[in-house]
Amino acid sequence: MDCPGCGLQRSVLLLFEGDFLGAFKMYPAIYPLVLLFLFILVNNFGKFKFGNITIIVLGILSASTILINYFYKLLQ
Fold this sequence. Notes:
This protein has four helices and no strands. By secondary structure, it is mostly helical. The chain is flat and about 45 Å long.
């Protein structure tokens, strides 16, 4: 049985190779997670006015994408 994080490492490798569609097909939550981590990194250097709210929204988006993908894989 797959776990909610299965495919993340392969998706990151595909992303580094430039296969953006393949990375999405392997793990659809890769792009919300990349956005979340990049925003956290940028927000540490320069504080944004709504930085905390943006981090919360991106975290919820990432978690919901992970869970939706996990339940989709379970139903297949």
